[in-house]
Write a structure and sequence with these properties.
heterodimer, A: 629 residues, alpha+beta, Penicillin-binding protein 2a (Domain 2), Beta-lactamase, 2 domains, 7-stranded mixed sheet, 5-stranded antiparallel sheet, B: 368 residues, mainly alpha, 3-stranded antiparallel sheet, 15 helices, 73% helix, globular
Chain lengths: 629, 368
């Protein structure tokens, strides 16, 4: 069928036809090879720069290296805030074959909670699959060992060591040292607007409170970086270039951890605050506010439950030493006495009769003395020693509020002391203007009377009281209250504080001595309110007690602690210093709702001073408390 | 003349075309060099690759011993068996990577489409070559049917790359046989609505996606466009001299996908630069020129058409692969001939060159 047509084939014609077609084909081939060649030429020569750059962008990544945070030491070199390696179980999701099965197996192996798994799922949803994610933070040694043995079953999972902050003394130092916690969005935005976000590229934690917050910049250090070559999964193949980070500065505090522990121990059953200042330079030797809490809870993210526990009515989050607003009560009587002397309202020889109350001429209201039957004949010394109220009602009434507030503001009342933590309030040193803008009311002469004994509208923080006492014992010389002695970086030591404020100058230096002598008598004379607490010390202490009423007692009634609700009972105060001749420390104690200062606060001051001056080792019950994990 | 004659005796005895063999051998050395780099110095892979090359060389030598007249006798059974296996693949084939291309023969797995790469040009060359050239219209229709059936069957697997190669091998026979320019012109005119129909009805979603990302790879830089972008970066960053053997960052750090198979040209371009590319293209041109030279000098129409079609199909491999990795063509799975890692295609190609050598030496034997 196929051979039906006679075929006389013209072989040479066919050969020519084929040769032509083959030639045409070859021309096409040449053309197309030319196209390929030109295209490659375009890529490799014309666009070489572009593609070369993109190739480098592919393979070279700059990885920031977080600097190690500076450490915090007490004045004797005891570590108060350290960087501890923690072991986290981390996952690179991309490298896990069956994530669900692995999670199930691991949760049986290591006791990973449902919550941790839920958080982990949330994390991986929002991150790139080649980025390492924390599945379980802070593995204990057993978990680390258990996982290590089984690691081969879990490709993509690994244990990573990271440095995180740890506070070995826990709740002893929370309000002073503060803590760091996860850097949040708001702080990042602030860093951004300050142009500092580049320095935080590798940083997880940020100072949130206390010294950790105030000295964030110094403690943080400067970020380093390395240029690395990575493969398509982001794994580092080799390091091309490295510029190491500069670690943060170590801070050496003026704080004495032993004294701090005694302060904590002394307040263990009560709300209150203690400030111990170095009279020579304003350094804080101890600052404790009770109740406190464990700062380590915050470092790894506090649970809701734990946080709610801190929102109780005892308000542990408040630093009572710098944020507590207390009526300073009789602790300010030595200063009021100086005011009276300076203004010529009294002299060293002035005596007055105290019937047990004070009255403004032609007014029925009686401002009562704490001693119902009065102190009989009183001079300035006795008024301070026995804490006579009437004597100071009189000074205050005659001085008037403006002179009082002008004078007291020189001692730092009504203003921040500028201590190196941010948690500080100004409290209130009342003036006529203040009352007008606050209550839209005029200032009545009666308002001035209670200010004379540190009550009424006047409030102060324990630190302000300590600060004013330090100025007093230094005869007007001012020392800036501060925590940080020096910042240290390798061999460089940097002094951070200078005392810039001008001294308080009196008309007569003798006026300092009168107030201080009276404070000395308060402790040393049998009739002094602090005599009992300081009996038999081997150092020469001086001080002043205080008791602040929290509710006004109706005319004609008596204060009866048992009748009052616990939170309405008196606050006890004590300010003291020692040695009298050459003051080294100033101690301020506030004890809430336990009653008068001579019985509650003064004995605590005694404990602190005993420790300070005897260089006693810590009581046995405290030595075991150091370095609790 | 007799000196030359004596010199080539050994090669002639085994029906080997010496220039072509030299070019192919150079190609294989180049392949080993580049695969070594592209595989990340994987010696296991090198061993497998070398073994397959040995197999491919043997296939070439064996095929070179079979005279074209013997080939003519097995054309029809070979074609029919191939067709039957293609049908079988659609029903009982083994799937891999979403396509059903493999036939499990118990001992080994086997892609019937590889047989058709040879069987189709052989069948069409034989069918057209039995009559004087140029073919008549009815013969052309017959020829087209012979091409179309296996092409459609392979496209259904789906394997677009191979079906393009097989279709072009058949069409090259028709073109070389003197297909009239009028018909070629009308076919091109028809190709435009044809292409539209293919787009609408004939292409899988993933194929359409490939075409779309080919048109604008940056539209999907992490998805399907990733391959093309990374490949162009590899080629472009190679520059004139290249980054040096084993020093291509795109390939060694695995930014380049499929780097030892379909995208091996990018590895070569990155590590050896424009110089390497030009050398490679010259080598390909030499092989094609030699193949066409053999075809023109073949004894009969069957030999001419078969040698010519196989040679031009070889070029299609080159063009489609380089075109796709350098961003000129959409990504279809076609390896770079004789260079890419992967056994079957190399064996088939070398078998084809074996047949070309048989055609070449047949003439020389007759000249004696």
């Amino acid at each position: 069928m196929l051979n039906r047509r006679p075929t006389i084939r013209d072989h040479s014609a066919e050969a020519n036809l084929f040769a032509r077609r083959a030639f045409i084909s070859f021309i096409f081939v040449l053309l197309l090879v030319g196209v390929l060649g030109l295209n490659v030429y375009n890529l490799q020569v014309e666009q070489f720069e572009t593609y070369s750059t993109r190739s480098n962008e592919n393979r070279i990544k700059v990885i920031p290296i977080a600097p190690n945070r500076g450490l915090i030491y007490d004045r004797n070199g005891v570590l108060l805030a350290e960087n501890q390696p923690v072991f986290n179980l981390e996952v690179i999701p991309e490298e896990v074959e069956d994530l669900e099965a692995s999670l199930l197996a691991l949760s049986n192996l290591l006791n990973i909670s449902e919550q941790e798994i839920a958080e982990f799922r949330d994390e991986i949803r929002h991150n790139r699959r080649f980025k390492s994610q924390v599945l379980k933070a802070r593995l204990n040694e057993l978990d680390v060992a258990t996982f290590s043995v089984n690691q081969h079953k879990f490709p993509g999972f690994s244990i990573e060591a990271r440095l995180t902050r740890h506070y070995p003394y826990g709740d002893t130092l929370t309000h002073a040292v503060g803590y760091v916690s996860r850097l949040n969005k708001k702080e990042l935005n602030e860093l951004e607007s300050a142009g500092k976000e580049q320095n935080y590229r590798a940083t997880h934690d940020f100072g949130k409170l206390g010294i950790e917050k105030y000295y964030e910049e110094a403690l943080h250090g400067i970020v380093g970086s390395q240029r690395v070559e990575v493969n398509n999964r982001g794994r580092i193949i080799r390091t091309l270039e490295m510029s190491p980070p500069t670690p943060g500065k170590d801070l050496i505090l003026t704080l004495d951890i032993g004294l701090q522990q005694i302060a904590q121990h002394a307040l263990k059953d009560t709300r209150g605050a203690i400030v111990v200042m170095d009279a020579k330079d304003g350094g804080i030797l101890a600052m404790y506010s009770n109740p406190s809490y464990d700062p380590n809870l915050f470092v790894h993210g506090i649970s809701n439950e734990d946080y709610r526990g801190l929102l109780n009515e005892d308000r542990p989050l408040i630093n009572r030493a710098t944020q507590g607003r207390y009526a300073p009560a009789s602790t300010i009587k030595p200063l009021m006495a100086i005011l009276g002397l300076e203004e010529g309202l009294i002299t060293e020889q002035t005596h007055m009769f105290d019937p047990g109350f004070f009255q403004i001429p032609n007014v029925d209201h009686r401002w009562r003395d704490w001693k119902r039957w009065g102190h009989d004949r009183v001079d300035v010394f006795k008024a301070i020693e026995e804490s006579c109220d009437t004597f100071f009602y009189d000074i205050a009434y005659r001085a008037g509020i403006t002179k009082i507030s002008d004078f007291m503001s020189q001692f730092g009342f009504g203003d921040r002391t500028g201590i190196d933590i941010h948690e500080e309030t100004t409290a209130i040193l009342p003036t006529i203007d203040w009352k007008r803008s606050r209550f839209r009311e005029n200032w009545w002469p009666g308002d001035t009377i209670s200010v004379g004994i540190g009550q009424g509208y006047w409030t102060a923080t324990p630190l302000q009281i300590a600060n004013s006492t330090t100025i007093l014992v230094n005869r007007g010389i001012y020392h800036q209250p501060h925590f940080v002695q020096v910042a240290r970086q390798e061999d460089q030591v940097e002094q951070l504080f200078t005392d810039e404020r001008p001294p308080v100058v009196l008309k007569k230096n003798r006026h300092w001595e009168i107030a201080l002598e009276a404070m000395h008598n308060t402790v040393q004379k049998k009739t002094g309110t602090a005599h009992g607490a300081f009996a038999g010390t081997n150092y020469d202490a001086a001080g002043k007690t205080g008791t602040a009423q929290l509710v006004s007692i109706a005319q004609g009634e008596r204060y009866d602690a048992k009748k009052l609700q616990e939170r309405h009972r008196d606050n006890g105060f004590y300010v003291g210093f020692a040695p009298y001749k050459d003051p080294q420390i100033v101690v301020t104690i506030v004890v809430e709702n336990l009653g008068g200062g001579s019985s509650t606060a003064a004995p605590i001051a005694r404990q602190l001073m005993d420790y300070y001056f005897s260089a006693n080792p810590l009581p046995e019950e405290l030595t075991s408390k150091g370095k609790k994990s | 003349m007799s000196d030359l004659h004596n010199k080539t005796t050994i090669w002639q005895k085994f029906h080997i075309d010496f220039p072509l063999f030299c070019a192919l051998f150079t190609m294989m050395v180049a392949s080993l060099t580049i695969v070594y780099s592209a595989s990340g110095q994987d010696m296991d892979m090198m061993l497998r690759h070398g073994t397959r090359m040995g197999g491919a060389l043997i296939a070439m030598i064996v095929l070179a011993q079979i005279s074209p007249s013997t080939l003519k006798n097995i054309v029809i059974p070979l074609y029919l068996i191939g067709l039957a296996m293609l049908v079988a693949v659609l029903f009982v084939g083994v799937s891999s990577k979403g396509a059903q291309r493999w036939l499990d023969l118990g001992v080994t797995r086997f892609q019937p489409s590889e047989i058709m790469k040879l069987a189709v040009p052989m069948m069409v060359s034989w069918y057209i070559g039995r009559h004087p050239l140029p073919p008549r219209f009815l013969q052309l229709i017959g020829g087209f049917v012979l091409v179309l059936v296996p092409t459609v069957l392979i496209k259904e697997q789906p394997d677009l790359g191979t079906s393009i190669l097989i279709a072009s091998s058949g069409i090259f026979v028709l073109f070389l046989s003197g297909l009239s320019w009028k018909l070629i012109g009308s076919a091109l005119v028809l190709a435009i609505p044809g292409g539209f129909l293919l787009w609408t009805y004939g292409m899988h979603a993933y194929q359409k996606q490939r075409v779309l990302t080919f048109l604008n790879p940056e539209s999907d830089p992490l998805g399907t466009g990733y391959h093309i972008i990374q490949s162009k970066i590899a080629i472009g960053s190679g520059g004139v001299e290249g980054k040096g053997w084993l020093h291509g960052t795109q390939s060694q750090l695995e930014f380049l996908p499929e780097r030892h198979t379909d995208f091996i040209f990018s590895v070569l371009s990155e590590e050896f630069g424009l110089v390497g590319v030009i050398l490679l293209l010259c080598l390909y041109l030499f092989i094609i020129a030699r193949g066409l030279y053999i075809a023109v000098n073949a004894q009969d129409a069957f030999g001419k058409l078969l040698a010519g079609a196989l040679t031009l199909t070889f070029f299609v491999y080159v063009f489609v692969n380089i075109g796709m990795v350098s961003g000129l063509l959409p990504v279809v799975g076609v390896p770079l001939p004789l260079i890419s890692y992967g056994g079957t295609s190399m064996v088939t190609l070398m078998a084809g060159f074996g047949m070309i050598m048989a055609i070449a030496t047949e003439k020389k034997l007759l000249l004696k």
